[in-house]
């Protein structure tokens, strides 16, 4: 065992033993139970996969493939040379702690043939901004980055350029620097399907005159060509499915607000950005996700969408070639929330509400929202005072069936980690099938009530065995100048209010490979919407605790058994080596 030296002062040094990752006692117990004479054959491993990992359909071929995948480790002398077919304890431990043993399935596995309204869709807000909402640059780079992560809805605010003869993308009435629309469109075409084959929706916040709309129509048509989805009729009776729209681009917009009689400046609609609270990510790892009941502020009524005085009246001002491109019609009909949430059996549409508007309406009309989202699309967007590009708790949207919970993807923080976690589901394709209870009505036409008190449906047990990888991914003085780090893990649930909880392990001092071996139980009333949160921090007695990695996993997709859980940095990028060894069990 090697040692590591820390310089405390000019003449004094501290030396610490550098531990090597070893199988915890419980892992040794499993190995002894499923091996013979210190060797685990393919048949032994198959039994382990079925009985412990709960992979009921695991075959002998699956077990053999897992063993074969470890052949590359032979040079480390950890694969037992018994015809190359058996694992010893060390190799079995490496298998469990390796990339081939992930906590969730990495393939698309849900039914993709239902209408778009039956899915949560990975949605960006002001997708072109590189930083804050007031003065950052507009660019195609954050659009590319979002698409590469799997985001399926890109928002562009389109405005006339200074000469009124071209189109730019920028956040209106701010100091943001513009980017040409054509550059954004070309980047979308190039990168739309690098992470997922399922459709990309472009939502346009349109501030153009009809002649410039005609130019947009020409740009869009020439850029996307045959991959652009143009519906046969002016209004769809039902949305098509993600499967039928694979590798297609969809346009969604509403009538242009600049030329409506009821037009309200966007900055006035969203509230004075200099007043009220701003949710900044001031902590080292991001502000804690607020409870849903804490987010409502009664003093604002921000409205990014217009209170359209009769959508059809303003559709006439659209350039006809532009109007033909619109597959998902958006807008707020006249008549207040009663009309907004009315379900028309003859056509479907998109409605947008700010996070605050949704919370306010949900107080007494939660079931109306759920009923609306069974056929129509609801988009939720951040309130106007989030000038630092922070985000809100996405569960407020998901628990009401909102498909497009729009987030500022360029920032970081715990709310965005929840978004990343939700869309790890279904192979990371950007579309997650909504739970059946959000899609179906009862015999008396009743629907899911987000405010109802429900019984516990399942219990998730999480045993945090250990972690490793920080020694390779961080400088040895990153966490502490004078000693190895003191790690602890926070583990908890984000979900409906009744399920939300956070707990933590003890702190393991002076160790790059902490072994906690602690179990936590989480009773879940709505496991279909629950997200498991895992965060590692380094305890610091004199200063703020340091960030050591995080991940969020959709509970509905967690695979039972012992799994290697990779951790990510603040921005959601996976570390090369940092991971936790965790045992999951549902009872």
Give your account of this protein's structure.
The chain has helices at residues 25-33, 42-51, 60-69, 89-96, 141-149, 181-191, 210-224, 266-269, 311-315, 320-323, 336-340, 355-373, 395-398, 414-422, 470-473; strands spanning 3-9, 12-17, 119-124, 153-160, 167-169, 179-180, 200-206, 249-253, 326-329, 350-354, 377-381, 404-407, 431-433, 458-468, 487-494, 501-504, 515-524, 531-538, 546-554, 561-568, 574-586. The model is unreliable at 257-285, 296-303 and 305-316 (pLDDT under 50). It is of the alpha/beta class and 587 residues long. The strands form 5 sheets. A 6-stranded mixed β-sheet has the order 6-5-4-7-8-9. The protein is built from 15 helices and 21 strands. Strand 11 (377-381), helix 13 and strand 12 (404-407) form a beta-alpha-beta unit. Helix 6 (181-191) runs parallel beside helix 7. The two termini are 40 Å apart. Helix content is 21%, strand content 23%.
């Amino acid at each position: 065992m090697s040692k590591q030296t820390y310089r405390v002062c000019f003449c004094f040094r501290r030396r610490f033993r550098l531990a090597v990752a070893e199988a915890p006692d419980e892992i040794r117990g499993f190995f002894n139970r499923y091996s013979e004479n210190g060797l685990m054959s393919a048949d032994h491993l198959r039994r382990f996969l079925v009985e412990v990992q709960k992979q009921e359909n695991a075959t002998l071929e699956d077990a053999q493939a897992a063993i074969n995948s470890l052949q590359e480790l032979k040079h480390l002398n950890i694969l037992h040379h018994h015809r190359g077919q058996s694992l010893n304890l060390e190799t079995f431990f490496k298998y469990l702690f390796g990339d081939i043993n992930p906590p969730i399935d990495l393939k698309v596995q849900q039914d993709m043939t239902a209408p778009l309204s039956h899915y949560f869709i990975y949605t960006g807000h002001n997708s072109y901004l590189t930083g804050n909402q007031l003065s950052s640059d507009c660019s195609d780079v954050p659009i590319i980055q979002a698409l590469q992560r799997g985001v399926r809805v890109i928002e562009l605010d389109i405005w006339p350029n200074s000469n009124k003869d071209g189109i730019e993308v920028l956040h209106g009435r701010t100091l943001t620097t513009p980017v040409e629309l054509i550059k954004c469109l070309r980047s979308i075409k190039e990168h739309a399907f690098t992470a997922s084959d399922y459709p990309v929706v472009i939502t346009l916040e349109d501030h153009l005159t009809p002649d410039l709309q005609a130019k947009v129509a020409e740009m869009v048509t020439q850029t996307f060509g045959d991959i652009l989805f143009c519906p046969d009729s002016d209004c769809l009776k039902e949305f098509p499915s993600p499967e039928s729209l694979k590798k297609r681009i969809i346009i969604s917009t509403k009538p242009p607000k600049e030329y409506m009689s009821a037009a309200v400046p966007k900055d006035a609609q969203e509230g004075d950005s200099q007043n009220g609270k701003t949710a900044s990510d001031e902590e080292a790892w991001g502000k804690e996700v607020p409870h849903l009941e804490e987010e409502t502020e009664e003093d604002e009524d921000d409205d990014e969408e217009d209170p359209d005085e009769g959508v059809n009246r303003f559709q006439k001002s659209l350039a006809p070639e532009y109007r033909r491109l619109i597959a998902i019609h958006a807008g707020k009909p006249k008549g207040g929330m009663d009309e907004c949430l009315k379900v028309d059996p003859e056509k479907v549409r998109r409605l947008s509400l700010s996070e605050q508007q949704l919370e306010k309406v949900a107080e007494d009309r939660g079931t109306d929202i759920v009923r609306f989202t069974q056929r129509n699309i609801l988009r939720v967007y951040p309130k106007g005072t989030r000038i630092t590009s922070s985000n809100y708790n996405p569960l407020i949207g998901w628990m009401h069936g909102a498909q497009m919970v729009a987030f500022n993807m360029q920032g970081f923080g715990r709310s965005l980690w929840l978004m990343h976690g939700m869309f790890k589901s279904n192979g990371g394709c950007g579309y997650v099938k909504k739970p059946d209870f959000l899609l179906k009505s009862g015999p008396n036409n009743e629907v899911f009530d987000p405010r109802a008190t429900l019984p516990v449906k399942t219990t998730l047990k999480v045993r945090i065995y250990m972690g490793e990888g920080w020694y390779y991914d961080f400088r040895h003085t990153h966490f502490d100048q004078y000693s190895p780090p003191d790690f602890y893990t926070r583990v908890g649930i984000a979900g409906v209010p009744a399920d939300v909880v956070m707990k933590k392990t003890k702190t393991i001092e002076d160790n790059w490979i902490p072994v906690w071996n602690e179990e936590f139980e989480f009773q879940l009333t709505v496991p279909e919407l629950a997200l498991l949160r895992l965060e590692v921090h380094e305890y610091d007695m004199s200063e703020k605790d340091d960030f050591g990695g995080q991940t969020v996993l959709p509970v509905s997709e967690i695979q039972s058994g012992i799994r290697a859980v990779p951790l990510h940095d603040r921005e959601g990028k996976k570390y090369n080596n940092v991971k936790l060894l965790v045992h999951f069990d549902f009872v």
